[in-house]
Design a protein that fits this description.
lipid transporter activity, two-stranded parallel ribbon, Rossmann fold, ABCA, ABC transporter A family member 1-like, four-stranded antiparallel sheet, ABC-type transporter activity, P-loop_NTPase, 8 helices, Alpha-Beta Plaits
Length: about 210
């Protein structure tokens, strides 16, 4: 209740600049989402500086996101910018038959030669695909789909040397880098004072302080 009261006090004055320090920490899911909706509703025409450890909160509220680690501001930008700059790429996960690992690997590496296998546990195998490889996805997905949907397709059609009727792939899914992965990667890097993106951020903050 004290946290909700503090939030109300911060908003009641119709201030143009609002600073919120983990405003939803300790709230139940319903109250948290209600607070998000309130902040989204009143943020127009205001500058709201909000700190949080919640990646979901960042995704919902963050127009520009800054990540701090070890007392240093490491990066700042939109969610899309951070995912593109610090992201590790796409994750392709495939559910395979008992002996389908070679089938999955053959298809993936034929279309994305720089793909790396992240894990191969049980019937699930995952690959890391670089962000620059997205132009190859259409043909790769088309081949995977044809092998899944037409189990009696000839091996020549699927470009793989495995027995007819057993292509080894049952389903698949792909996801882009998450903010959680970006945070872990950024916070684990050594600080590079020559990094232009970091220097630009420092200049902008210095300019704001001088005014």
């Amino acid at each position: 209740m004290k946290r909700k009261l503090s939030l109300c006090i911060a908003l009641i004055g119709n201030s143009k600049v609002i600073i919120l320090d983990e405003p939803t920490s300790g709230m139940d899911p319903y109250s948290m989402r209600s607070t998000w909706q309130l902040i989204k509703k009143i943020k127009k025409g205001r500058i709201i500086l909000l700190t949080t450890h919640s990646k979901d909160e960042v995704n919902v509220l963050g127009d520009r996101i800054a990540i701090m680690a070890n007392g240093h501001l490491r990066c700042c930008g939109s969610s899309l910018y951070l995912k593109h700059k610090y992201g590790v790429g796409y994750t392709l996960t495939m559910v395979k038959a008992a002996h389908g690992v070679s089938v999955a690997a053959n298809i993936v590496h034929r279309h994305v030669s720089t793909a790396t296998c992240l894990s191969d546990v049980g019937t699930e195998i995952s690959f890391r695909l670089p962000l620059t490889s997205s132009s190859s996805f259409e043909n790769m997905f088309r081949e995977i789909d044809s092998c899944i949907r037409r189990p009696h397709l000839s091996s020549e059609k699927c470009h793989s040397s495995y027995s007819e009727g057993n292509f080894g792939i049952e389903s698949y899914g792909i996801s882009v880098t998450t903010l959680e992965e970006v945070f872990l990667r950024v916070s684990g890097q050594n600080i590079d004072e020559n990094d232009k993106s970091v220097l630009v951020i420092h200049v902008r903050f210095d300019t704001l302080r001088s005014n």
